[in-house]
């Protein structure tokens, strides 16, 4: 239809989302703010849900590993496992080849596990929590922007967040750190929203609610989940009146966060002390050492913001952010924004290990900044109608540039066939799904429990484990390990055994040969 590579249903979703946003513009201009926000949320949810199902495979790296851990947590919620068969004798050094998996905090995995428990081990179930949380992030961004700069900036910021390409790629697992960041950013955004929304009417239950956001954020990506506390402490200490009461609310929120986050830490240390110590050491190592070649210059984060806002130059995004915060009239809101942004960028810039997504915990402020800039450049026009026309026009242009539907189509539909590099990624993953289905038939229906499959490349091995009940790894086992597995009643399968391996293996091993049409390794 219309020369598009999107399916008719996908095209209908896109068209419906655009119409919903145009209706939201009408509602906003008529000062029907509730309807306007509701329509934007509907468009955001619809687009996110549509995009979430474009890739029928698990993307590499992080999503594929997170998916398998979440699947196992659906049955064992308090025992995070990547490989559930302890007899495979894997170590703890590699986060993509281990038994007990504590590389990330568990909250986002619990959300995925609940969805998998309800809907099964499907792509829809895996990505649904990120769809829901990032839709909520649109709501939180609206509230943050409204507190800082009023209803019009809030409307524009929510619209831009709804159409963020980068957020949609987090949902689909196509960029780091996929569902972990999608849910973490949303939770921290919820904490900022709560504080800005209730700042003048704080109470015990509101402080507890903010603490719940922070505690769940800590349980998703560790201590940066307490980011709000830095700005809140500065605000409280610089108050001339009501300082003691503000410190009381802040303490309640902080203690609530600790109550949420600490029990898991105690449990993990008591049950898995060796793995937990290894992961905590690795966390600390990120600050002093470049881990997994993720390094960069001191200005790395000033340049890498193009990963999140590809249509807009970095000077524009940072300039809009600075202008937005500087022009925030309320001193406490201004202080909170400055402290949060500066602490975030200062900390991650000082760390040796760098990834472009790390400082995006403050991404709502960038959307508020761009929205404020759109309003600011429209103010010199003489008439109110002209201002509205320019603001809404610039907003729609920015939203269109933000989402870049053609880019989504190029990378995540059949249009990828027209680009050799992109198809080498997408095509190999689709081909591997077919090989996985054939291999699943080879395992024999109803006999897959206790199956261990070797020599399956990454991430195909993770796809194999997520969609089917088996263990699969890229490793080739030793004869001694295979003997021990067979003695325990495991079915051992080696895919396309390398030369000489079959002669070393004991009787009872099954060999699956693909005759030259086997697994393909996507480019890294």
Give a brief description.
With 524 residues, this protein is an all-alpha fold. It is 64% helix and 3% strand.
Q: In what range is the share of β-strand residues?
A: under 5%
Query: What is the H-and-E element order?
Result: HHHHHHHHHHHHHHHHHHHEHEHEHE
> How many separate helices?
22
Low-confidence stretches: none
- Widest beta sheet: strand line-up: 2-1-3-4
Oligomeric form: single chain
Please tell me how large the radius of gyration is. 25 Å
Mean pLDDT comes to 94
| Main beta sheet strand tally, sense and closure | 4 strands, parallel
3D shape: globular
- How many strand segments? 4
Spatial separation of the terminal alpha carbons: 34 Å
What would you say this structure looks like, in words?
Helix 20 links the parallel strand 1 and strand 2 (471-472). Helix 7 (165-172) crosses helix 8 and helix 10 runs antiparallel to helix 11 (243-271). The relative contact order is 0.10. This protein has helices spanning 8-29, 33-52, 62-73, 107-119, 123-149, 151-162, 165-172, 178-198, 204-221, 227-237, 243-271, 273-288, 300-304, 314-326, 331-350, 363-378, 384-403, 405-412, 420-442, 460-467, 479-487, 501-504; strands spanning 451-454, 471-472, 491-495, 510-512. It has 524 residues and is mostly helical.
